[in-house]
Amino acid sequence: MAESFRDPQRGGSLIVAWQIKAKTILIVGGGAVAASRVFNALDADACVTVVAPELCPELQYRFSSAQITWKDRKFVDSDLEKTDMVLTAISDVQESRRIADLCKQHRIPVNAADINDLCDFWFMSTHRDHSVQVAVSTNSKAPRLANRIRRQIASALPRGTGLAVEQIGRLRKRIREADPKPENSKRRMTWLTQLCDYWPIEQLAKLDADNIDTLLDAYVQNHDPQSVKIAQDTTTSLSSSGMPSPVMQTPTTDDHLSDPTENKKGRLVLVGAGVGDPELLTVRAHKELKQADIVLADKLIPEPVLDIIDCEIYTARKFPGAASEAQEDLYRRGLEELAKGRRVVRLKQGDPFVYGRGGEEILFFRKHGYEPDVVPGLTSAINGPGLCGIPVTHRGVADQVLVLSGANRNGDLPVVPPFVATRTLVILMAVKRLERVMELLREQEFPDDLPVAIVERAGCTDQRTVRGTLSTIAGIVERVGHNAPGLIVAGHAVNILSDAAIQDRYLDPSTLGLHSTE
Ligand SMILES: C[S@@+](CC[C@H](N)C(=O)[O-])C[C@H]1O[C@@H](n2cnc3c(N)ncnc32)[C@H](O)[C@@H]1O
Fold first, then answer.
1. Of 133, 168, 259, 331, whose CB count within 10 A is highest?
2. What residue stretches are annotated with the Siroheme biosynthesis protein Met8 C-terminal domain (predicted)?
């Protein structure tokens, strides 16, 4: 009878793990995309050269810490000499195409960011845990969905998967050294397969040097791995069937058996996610997100920031109308993860201490024995207007800023102090109650023609500024609609950079009775 073989599905990519160690990757471009390519290349131990007239902060850091070579100019054709791979990440599509054509002439594999037809290969959404790399490709059809799929796969992996691989790698090497004969390769493989297929991954992760000696002994003595009793602080081992079963063990201390790099207690970092643009994360925030075991995220963290996270992301479950229950849900999960000794990042919009309940969270975790670290973020209150061309102070126009919340405890409206002409008022969480808030301002003698702006989704690709005055803004927003999150800015600084007539008027601060500030 004829044998039947699988039919190829076709249309996929050849998925391989490219050994690029010590080879040269040339990256053309100095922005955020280039930075993410550089990170991938360094993760694979490649020698990285970046060619770009300017570098974003992350690449400046990598250059100053000698991780990359930098040619501070535009690409020239001779850059391709002695180059094993080229990645372009520039906005000039024509130049990208030209570089890709040159690479093809020289048979150098090339990837041009966002120009699929020029790419010899694509980057995949990857998860990394020690030597374990999980990569998801959608063959460039849905890269964003690939991130989500990768996150889901990563979160389903047992804890310690990467360590388990390291330990098996060590044991495999020891067995080969002890029994190098090629004719025994099948025996070596069969013996190790019993460990790899049946032992719980968490248990493999906890193998220490003594355990590896014991296992090696069992191999040399020709004992089944199932018969080996390993003393660990886990309650499972193997029965003679090879499946996990409870076992009596010699008690040992955690210190003896745990991974020396693992903290006894977990670590919590409160990280400010900034306003929404991942390029505006601090270098430290980026590092914490990359090193986290789990990220507990506020609901409104924009997708591009979430996209840079490789580990599991947990967002508070929804409790309609009950924000405090969502907060408790995050506290509960945080404590669970910390008890497992994990690095937990609590990711908050903007800055954790500006209407972010950051202080409360510190007090809560401190009460439970954990002292969180804090990584500040760009706050929407100051940087939101700034990103939309509104300086919250401006010499001769505004010498003070007052930040208020439009939804205080129990949903109360803010207490607005009397009008000061040189003050910029920023009100968060208030656009939904815009009309009522404007009334409150009027009650405090704020003039009807005072410039007022609504700053929406600052730092996101769809940021927008809606401008009017105290008397017109509510009507304008009703007409044009509102995209949350947004904030209100009121004061003479609102139009100072956008309206030439106003600039003239304010060139002489005396016309407003304003005093100048240095
Ligand atoms: C609970 S407060 C958190 C503020 C945050 N901790 C910060 O420092 O930006 C949420 C409010 O911040 C404002 N907000 C947050 N992100 C924003 C953005 N990208 N653009 C405009 N306003 C934003 C909105 O008023 C929103 O209702």
1. 168
2. 158-223
